[in-house]
Amino acid sequence: GDSVTQMEGPVTLSEEAFLTINCTYTATGYPSLFWYVQYPGEGLQLLLKATKADDKGSNKGFEATYRKETTSFHLEKGSVQVSDSAVYFCALRESNYQLIWGAGTKLIIKP
Amino acid sequence: EAQVTQNPRYLITVTGKKLTVTCSQNMNHEYMSWYRQDPGLGLRQIYYSMNVEVTDKGDVPEGYKVSRKEKRNFPLILESPSPNQTSLYFCASSSGGPKNQPQHFGDGTRLSIL
């Protein structure tokens, strides 16, 4: 069945560092891909999405490119801030309503 | 404002005392879902509903019930809560149709079963 694999956390970086959180997936068809973010004490919010191969989703300085050849959707940001500290979830959706979730990656940014 | 509303946000209760966590969405979404989130285990789906009167088990349905009598509401019922149901619970909704539609989440309900 479909699955999503994320790099294990926590990921600890200094402010202004470059961020990559890896996400790879397995799917039978052509899913849409999502990154969600969960700030401390809050629910999950959609961060960005991509719906077909080579699409790039972007929001709040974060980017991720849908790579069909490597079945990946890595999250990147050029210069992280303390306020980016959160848990990040990668997810995919095939033709039905269901979202398949990665386990989440906790990001800690130190000043 | 489009939102998913869960109540209560926090609850501490005792083993065996029935409780209900309500979830309501104002976006006319067909699909609604309950998840629990536990440290190291990510999000696990409890139950979901594709539309009114249509519900299905997710990955961890044991000990829970749901109902979908109206499109906007999807309550989660714990008939006889146990300590292993202590967790953070999220309700989510999304529209049907294209697979590029994201899920919208409530703010979460933190349950502690003593």
What tags apply to this protein structure?
heterodimer; A: 111 residues; mainly beta; six-stranded mixed beta sheet; four-stranded antiparallel beta sheet; 12 strands; B: 114 residues; seven-stranded mixed beta sheet
Note the topology:
The complex is a heterodimer of chains A (111) and B (114).
Chain A: E1 3-6, E2 11-14, E3 19-21, E4 23-26, E5 32-38, E6 44-50, E7 56-59, E8 62-65, E9 75-77, E10 86-93, E11 99-101, E12 105-110
Chain B: E1 4-7, E2 10-13, E3 19-25, E4 31-38, E5 42-51, E6 54-57, E7 65-66, E8 76-78, E9 87-94, E10 104-105, E11 109-113
How does this model look, in words?
The complex is a heterodimer of chains A (111) and B (114). Chain A contains no helices and 12 strands. With 111 residues, chain A is mainly β. In chain A, strand 5 and strand 6 form a beta hairpin. Chain A is globular. In chain B, the strands form 2 sheets. In chain B, strands 2, 4, 5, 6, 9, 10 and 11 form a 7-stranded mixed beta sheet that branches. A 4-stranded antiparallel beta sheet of chain B has the order 1-3-8-7, with no helix packed on it. By secondary structure, chain B is mostly beta strands. Classes of the chains: A mainly beta (111), B mainly beta (114). At the A-B interface, strand 5 and strand 6 of A face strand 5, strand 9 and strand 10 of B.
Give a nutshell description of this structure.
The complex is a heterodimer of chains A (111) and B (114). By secondary structure, chain A is mainly β.
Averaged pLDDT of chain A: 93
Q: Report strand % of chain B.
A: over 45%
The first-to-last residue Cα distance of chain B is 36 Å
- Gap between N and C termini of chain A, in Å? 41 Å
Tally of individual helices of chain A: 0
The backbone outline of chain A, from C-alpha atoms, is globular
Q: Specify the oligomeric state.
A: heterodimer
Number of strands of chain A: 12
